[in-house]
Amino acid sequence: MAVAACGVCASELESWTGRSEPAYPVRLGHEVSGVVAELGEGVESPAVGAPVGVWVTGHGYADYVVAQAAHCFAAGDVPLDTVLTEPLSCVVNAVHLADPRLGDDVVIIGAGFMGHVVQQLTALRGVRHLIVADTRPDALERARALGATQTVLVGEQDLSEVVAELTGGRLADVCIECAGTQAALDSVGAVTRMSGKVVLVGFHQGPPRSIPLGYWNWMAYDLRNAHFRETSAILRGMAVGARLLRAGLVDLAAHVTHRFELADIGTAFDTALSKPAGFVKATVVIDRACG
Ligand SMILES: [Zn+2]
User: Fold this and answer.
1) Domains of the chain (ranges plus CATH)?
2) Residue 266 C-alpha to ligand 1 middle, in angstroms?
3) How far is the CA of 277 from the centre of ligand 1 (A)?
4) How many A from CA of 11 to the centre of ligand 1?
5) What is the largest CA-CA distance in the chain?
6) What pLDDT, on the 0 to 100 scale, is given for residue 161?
7) C-alpha distances in angstroms, 141 versus 17, 137, 150, 231, 271?
8) Residue spans of beta strands (DSSP E) within the chain
9) Which of 53, 261, 262, 284 is the most exposed place for a label (fewest CB within 10 A)?
10) What does the pLDDT look like over 190-243, one tens digit per residue?
Protein backbone atom coordinates (compact mmCIF):
# COMPACT_ATOMS: atom_id res chain seq x y z
CA MET A 1 0.00 0.00 0.00
CA ALA A 2 1.24 3.47 -0.88
CA VAL A 3 1.17 5.49 2.34
CA ALA A 4 -0.59 8.85 2.12
CA ALA A 5 -0.20 9.85 5.77
CA CYS A 6 0.78 8.49 9.16
CA GLY A 7 -0.40 10.24 12.32
CA VAL A 8 2.07 10.95 15.11
CA CYS A 9 0.73 9.22 18.22
CA ALA A 10 1.30 10.46 21.78
CA SER A 11 2.14 6.87 22.71
CA GLU A 12 5.23 7.06 20.48
CA LEU A 13 6.78 10.09 22.14
CA GLU A 14 8.45 8.12 24.93
CA SER A 15 10.14 5.85 22.38
CA TRP A 16 11.17 8.84 20.31
CA THR A 17 12.81 10.63 23.22
CA GLY A 18 14.27 7.41 24.64
CA ARG A 19 12.62 7.96 28.00
CA SER A 20 10.87 4.59 27.86
CA GLU A 21 14.11 2.85 26.80
CA PRO A 22 12.58 0.31 24.44
CA ALA A 23 14.73 -2.30 22.75
CA TYR A 24 15.99 -0.35 19.77
CA PRO A 25 15.62 -0.29 16.84
CA VAL A 26 11.95 0.68 17.12
CA ARG A 27 9.84 1.08 14.00
CA LEU A 28 7.18 3.63 14.80
CA GLY A 29 4.09 4.61 12.85
CA HIS A 30 0.73 2.86 13.26
CA GLU A 31 -1.85 5.48 12.21
CA VAL A 32 -1.64 4.85 8.50
CA SER A 33 -3.84 5.70 5.56
CA GLY A 34 -3.08 5.34 1.87
CA VAL A 35 -3.95 3.81 -1.43
CA VAL A 36 -3.75 0.14 -2.35
CA ALA A 37 -0.77 -0.16 -4.68
CA GLU A 38 -0.53 -3.89 -5.27
CA LEU A 39 -2.40 -7.04 -4.26
CA GLY A 40 -0.85 -10.17 -2.87
CA GLU A 41 -1.51 -13.50 -4.54
CA GLY A 42 -5.11 -14.59 -4.23
CA VAL A 43 -6.29 -11.27 -2.80
CA GLU A 44 -9.29 -9.81 -4.60
CA SER A 45 -10.22 -6.82 -2.52
CA PRO A 46 -9.76 -4.00 -1.76
CA ALA A 47 -9.05 -2.99 -5.37
CA VAL A 48 -5.78 -1.47 -6.50
CA GLY A 49 -6.22 2.29 -6.18
CA ALA A 50 -8.73 2.04 -3.31
CA PRO A 51 -8.21 4.61 -0.55
CA VAL A 52 -8.02 2.93 2.85
CA GLY A 53 -7.15 3.30 6.50
CA VAL A 54 -5.02 0.36 7.63
CA TRP A 55 -3.97 -1.46 10.75
CA VAL A 56 -0.22 -1.95 10.98
CA THR A 57 1.80 -2.32 14.16
CA GLY A 58 4.68 -0.11 13.04
CA HIS A 59 6.77 0.85 10.04
CA GLY A 60 4.09 3.41 9.10
CA TYR A 61 6.43 6.32 8.44
CA ALA A 62 7.31 5.03 5.02
CA ASP A 63 6.48 5.31 1.34
CA TYR A 64 4.89 1.85 1.34
CA VAL A 65 3.62 -0.62 3.92
CA VAL A 66 2.47 -4.21 3.60
CA ALA A 67 -0.90 -4.81 5.23
CA GLN A 68 -3.35 -7.69 5.34
CA ALA A 69 -6.44 -7.18 3.19
CA ALA A 70 -8.64 -7.73 6.25
CA HIS A 71 -6.78 -4.90 7.97
CA CYS A 72 -7.76 -2.32 5.31
CA PHE A 73 -10.85 -0.20 5.74
CA ALA A 74 -12.44 1.79 2.91
CA ALA A 75 -11.92 5.53 3.32
CA GLY A 76 -14.42 6.62 0.66
CA ASP A 77 -13.83 10.19 -0.37
CA VAL A 78 -12.56 11.34 3.04
CA PRO A 79 -9.24 13.23 2.65
CA LEU A 80 -6.60 10.60 3.46
CA ASP A 81 -4.55 12.78 5.82
CA THR A 82 -7.62 12.82 8.11
CA VAL A 83 -8.37 9.09 7.86
CA LEU A 84 -6.95 8.28 11.29
CA THR A 85 -8.78 4.98 11.65
CA GLU A 86 -6.46 3.55 14.31
CA PRO A 87 -6.90 6.25 16.97
CA LEU A 88 -10.54 6.50 15.94
CA SER A 89 -10.82 2.80 16.72
CA CYS A 90 -9.53 3.46 20.25
CA VAL A 91 -12.22 6.10 20.71
CA VAL A 92 -15.00 3.98 19.21
CA ASN A 93 -14.10 1.20 21.65
CA ALA A 94 -13.75 3.66 24.53
CA VAL A 95 -17.17 5.20 23.93
CA HIS A 96 -18.75 1.75 23.56
CA LEU A 97 -17.18 0.81 26.89
CA ALA A 98 -18.21 4.10 28.55
CA ASP A 99 -21.70 3.56 27.12
CA PRO A 100 -23.07 7.06 27.74
CA ARG A 101 -26.88 6.84 27.74
CA LEU A 102 -29.56 9.20 26.47
CA GLY A 103 -29.75 12.24 28.71
CA ASP A 104 -26.61 11.39 30.70
CA ASP A 105 -24.41 14.11 32.11
CA VAL A 106 -20.84 13.48 30.99
CA VAL A 107 -17.55 15.04 32.05
CA ILE A 108 -14.54 14.72 29.76
CA ILE A 109 -11.22 15.65 31.35
CA GLY A 110 -8.60 16.49 28.74
CA ALA A 111 -9.27 18.17 25.39
CA GLY A 112 -6.39 16.95 23.27
CA PHE A 113 -6.91 14.89 20.13
CA MET A 114 -8.37 11.89 21.97
CA GLY A 115 -10.54 14.10 24.17
CA HIS A 116 -11.92 15.89 21.13
CA VAL A 117 -12.83 12.66 19.35
CA VAL A 118 -14.29 11.12 22.53
CA GLN A 119 -16.40 14.25 22.77
CA GLN A 120 -17.61 13.95 19.15
CA LEU A 121 -18.64 10.30 19.54
CA THR A 122 -20.19 10.88 22.98
CA ALA A 123 -22.32 13.64 21.49
CA LEU A 124 -23.71 11.06 19.02
CA ARG A 125 -25.14 9.22 22.05
CA GLY A 126 -27.60 12.01 22.91
CA VAL A 127 -26.24 13.05 26.26
CA ARG A 128 -27.48 16.11 28.17
CA HIS A 129 -24.54 18.03 29.62
CA LEU A 130 -21.22 17.46 27.87
CA ILE A 131 -18.72 19.20 30.12
CA VAL A 132 -15.12 19.41 28.95
CA ALA A 133 -12.22 20.41 31.21
CA ASP A 134 -8.66 21.31 30.26
CA THR A 135 -5.89 23.65 31.34
CA ARG A 136 -5.55 25.29 27.90
CA PRO A 137 -7.99 27.98 26.74
CA ASP A 138 -7.41 27.17 23.04
CA ALA A 139 -8.30 23.50 23.66
CA LEU A 140 -11.57 24.56 25.27
CA GLU A 141 -12.34 26.86 22.39
CA ARG A 142 -12.08 23.86 20.07
CA ALA A 143 -14.21 21.78 22.44
CA ARG A 144 -16.94 24.43 22.31
CA ALA A 145 -16.75 24.50 18.52
CA LEU A 146 -17.29 20.72 18.61
CA GLY A 147 -20.42 21.17 20.72
CA ALA A 148 -19.37 21.00 24.38
CA THR A 149 -22.30 22.35 26.39
CA GLN A 150 -19.91 23.65 29.03
CA THR A 151 -16.15 24.05 29.24
CA VAL A 152 -14.05 24.51 32.37
CA LEU A 153 -10.62 26.09 32.43
CA VAL A 154 -8.83 24.07 35.10
CA GLY A 155 -6.70 26.31 37.29
CA GLU A 156 -9.10 29.20 36.98
CA GLN A 157 -12.48 27.55 37.41
CA ASP A 158 -13.52 24.85 39.88
CA LEU A 159 -14.63 21.85 37.82
CA SER A 160 -16.49 20.18 40.70
CA GLU A 161 -18.47 23.37 41.41
CA VAL A 162 -19.48 23.73 37.77
CA VAL A 163 -20.53 20.08 37.53
CA ALA A 164 -22.45 20.24 40.82
CA GLU A 165 -24.28 23.34 39.70
CA LEU A 166 -25.22 22.00 36.27
CA THR A 167 -26.40 18.66 37.65
CA GLY A 168 -28.23 19.99 40.70
CA GLY A 169 -25.64 18.44 43.00
CA ARG A 170 -26.03 14.96 41.51
CA LEU A 171 -22.69 15.05 39.60
CA ALA A 172 -21.84 13.29 36.35
CA ASP A 173 -23.14 9.90 35.28
CA VAL A 174 -19.97 9.26 33.32
CA CYS A 175 -16.50 10.75 33.77
CA ILE A 176 -14.12 10.07 30.90
CA GLU A 177 -10.49 10.80 31.72
CA CYS A 178 -8.58 11.66 28.52
CA ALA A 179 -5.61 13.59 29.89
CA GLY A 180 -3.35 10.80 31.09
CA THR A 181 -2.21 12.85 34.07
CA GLN A 182 -2.27 12.48 37.85
CA ALA A 183 -4.12 15.80 38.14
CA ALA A 184 -6.94 14.46 35.98
CA LEU A 185 -7.26 11.33 38.16
CA ASP A 186 -7.32 13.55 41.25
CA SER A 187 -10.40 15.39 40.04
CA VAL A 188 -12.48 12.32 39.09
CA GLY A 189 -13.96 11.79 42.56
CA ALA A 190 -15.23 15.35 42.85
CA VAL A 191 -17.24 15.24 39.62
CA THR A 192 -18.63 11.68 39.40
CA ARG A 193 -21.87 10.66 41.07
CA MET A 194 -22.26 7.64 43.32
CA SER A 195 -22.37 4.48 41.16
CA GLY A 196 -21.27 6.52 38.15
CA LYS A 197 -18.84 5.29 35.54
CA VAL A 198 -15.16 6.27 35.53
CA VAL A 199 -13.52 5.56 32.19
CA LEU A 200 -9.77 5.76 31.63
CA VAL A 201 -8.84 6.76 28.10
CA GLY A 202 -5.70 8.77 28.89
CA PHE A 203 -2.38 7.06 28.23
CA HIS A 204 -0.66 6.99 31.63
CA GLN A 205 2.98 6.82 30.66
CA GLY A 206 5.75 7.87 33.02
CA PRO A 207 5.78 7.44 36.80
CA PRO A 208 3.14 5.32 38.57
CA ARG A 209 -0.16 7.06 39.33
CA SER A 210 -2.08 6.94 42.56
CA ILE A 211 -5.85 6.87 42.93
CA PRO A 212 -7.97 7.17 46.10
CA LEU A 213 -9.25 3.62 45.73
CA GLY A 214 -10.97 3.66 49.14
CA TYR A 215 -13.12 6.60 48.10
CA TRP A 216 -13.77 5.26 44.60
CA ASN A 217 -14.74 1.93 46.17
CA TRP A 218 -17.09 3.60 48.66
CA MET A 219 -18.63 5.66 45.84
CA ALA A 220 -19.36 2.39 44.02
CA TYR A 221 -17.71 3.66 40.86
CA ASP A 222 -17.86 1.43 37.85
CA LEU A 223 -14.19 1.59 36.73
CA ARG A 224 -13.50 0.94 33.06
CA ASN A 225 -10.08 0.78 31.47
CA ALA A 226 -10.48 1.88 27.85
CA HIS A 227 -7.18 0.58 26.57
CA PHE A 228 -7.63 -2.13 23.96
CA ARG A 229 -4.84 -4.49 22.98
CA GLU A 230 -6.67 -7.32 21.25
CA THR A 231 -6.33 -7.12 17.49
CA SER A 232 -9.95 -8.22 17.05
CA ALA A 233 -11.18 -5.28 19.14
CA ILE A 234 -8.93 -2.84 17.28
CA LEU A 235 -10.16 -4.09 13.90
CA ARG A 236 -13.79 -3.95 14.98
CA GLY A 237 -13.27 -0.36 16.16
CA MET A 238 -11.56 0.55 12.89
CA ALA A 239 -14.44 -0.85 10.84
CA VAL A 240 -16.93 1.21 12.84
CA GLY A 241 -14.66 4.26 12.71
CA ALA A 242 -14.29 4.04 8.93
CA ARG A 243 -18.07 3.73 8.60
CA LEU A 244 -18.55 6.85 10.74
CA LEU A 245 -15.96 8.75 8.68
CA ARG A 246 -17.49 7.76 5.34
CA ALA A 247 -20.95 8.74 6.57
CA GLY A 248 -19.69 12.10 7.78
CA LEU A 249 -20.86 11.30 11.33
CA VAL A 250 -17.38 12.16 12.55
CA ASP A 251 -14.86 14.43 10.87
CA LEU A 252 -11.25 14.56 12.06
CA ALA A 253 -10.10 17.29 9.66
CA ALA A 254 -10.17 20.07 12.25
CA HIS A 255 -7.85 18.08 14.54
CA VAL A 256 -4.99 17.60 12.08
CA THR A 257 -3.33 20.92 12.80
CA HIS A 258 0.25 20.13 11.74
CA ARG A 259 1.47 18.35 8.62
CA PHE A 260 5.09 17.38 7.90
CA GLU A 261 6.88 15.66 5.09
CA LEU A 262 8.71 12.42 5.80
CA ALA A 263 12.09 14.19 5.63
CA ASP A 264 10.90 16.47 8.48
CA ILE A 265 9.80 13.68 10.79
CA GLY A 266 12.09 14.98 13.52
CA THR A 267 10.26 18.29 13.50
CA ALA A 268 6.95 16.41 13.53
CA PHE A 269 7.90 14.62 16.75
CA ASP A 270 9.42 17.73 18.30
CA THR A 271 6.18 19.58 17.61
CA ALA A 272 4.08 16.76 19.09
CA LEU A 273 6.30 16.94 22.19
CA SER A 274 6.30 20.72 22.61
CA LYS A 275 2.61 21.13 21.69
CA PRO A 276 2.65 24.77 20.56
CA ALA A 277 -0.55 26.77 21.01
CA GLY A 278 -3.21 25.49 18.64
CA PHE A 279 -1.59 22.06 18.34
CA VAL A 280 -3.87 19.03 18.32
CA LYS A 281 -2.38 16.39 16.06
CA ALA A 282 0.62 16.09 13.77
CA THR A 283 0.70 13.84 10.76
CA VAL A 284 3.45 12.91 8.36
CA VAL A 285 2.28 13.13 4.76
CA ILE A 286 3.99 11.37 1.91
CA ASP A 287 4.19 13.86 -0.92
CA ARG A 288 4.77 11.81 -4.05
CA ALA A 289 5.02 14.90 -6.23
CA CYS A 290 8.16 15.85 -4.30
CA GLY A 291 9.36 12.33 -3.61
ZN1 LIG B 1 -1.85 5.75 18.12
Assistant:
1) 2-84+252-285 (3.90.180.10), 98-225 (3.40.50.720)
2) 17
3) 21
4) 6
5) 62
6) 98
7) 30, 6, 11, 35, 20
8) 2-7, 32-35, 51-54, 72-74, 106-109, 130-134, 150-153, 172-177, 192-200, 222-225, 256-261, 281-285
9) 261
10) 999 999 999 999 999 889 999 999 999 999 999 999 999 999 999 999 999 999
